[in-house]
Amino acid sequence: MWASVPADAPLQVILRRSDLDNLFLSIRECIIGQSDLSSCLQALTHGDTESAQKHFDAALLHQRNAISQIDNLVMHAMTTAKPVQNG
Q1: What is the number of other CB atoms lying within 10 angstroms of the CB of residue 36?
Q2: In this model, does residue 11 exceed pLDDT 70?
Q3: What gap in Å lies between CA 55 and CA 40, rounded to an integer?
Q4: What tens digit of pLDDT does each residue of 70-84 get?
Q5: What's the pLDDT band for 1 if we cut at 50, 70, 90?
Q6: CA–CA distance, 23 with 75 (Å, rounded to integer)
Q7: Which of helix, strand or coil describes residue 14?
Q8: Nearest to residue 86, comparing CAs of 3, 24, 10, 26?
Q9: In the prediction, which pLDDT does 87 show?
Q10: What are 26-85's pLDDT values in tens digits?
Q11: Which residues have a Cβ under 8 Å from the Cβ of 23 and sit 6 or more positions away?
Q12: Closest to 21 measured CA to CA, from 13, 9, 29
């Protein structure tokens, strides 16, 4: 279905609350992941490689969570979008 919709076609996508939750949570995960990367860099500059590794691992986890939540939102949009006529 998605591949057959022209790129410039207007679409109607009905979002559920859970879809918006996925969007908001993915943004939150990205922000937390950025903070973890900042803490990782700070720990590295102070020579604390153990702490840096912990923050880096946490950043990766937040990144994976964000990608998963975005994928859920995109999958919903791609499977439920309906082309609408230009009015």
Answers
A1: 20
A2: yes
A3: 5
A4: 999 999 999 999 999
A5: confident
A6: 12
A7: coil
A8: 10
A9: 58
A10: 999 999 999 999 999 999 999 999 999 999 999 999 999 999 999 999 999 999 999 998
A11: 69, 70, 73
A12: 29
Q: Do the beta carbons of residue 84 and residue 10 sit within 8 Å?
A: yes
**Location of structure tokens 């949009």:** 77
What single-letter amino acid sits at 54?
K
* Cβ atoms 40, 59 nearer than 8 A: yes
pLDDT band at 2 (very low <50, low <70, confident <90, very high): confident
Nearest to 83 by CA among 19, 22, 2: 2
Q: How far apart are CA 62 and CA 49, in angstroms?
A: 20
Contact between 62 and 36 under an 8 Å Cβ cutoff? The reply is yes
C-alpha 53/C-alpha 33 separation (Å) is 13
The amino acid present at 25, given as its one-letter code, is L
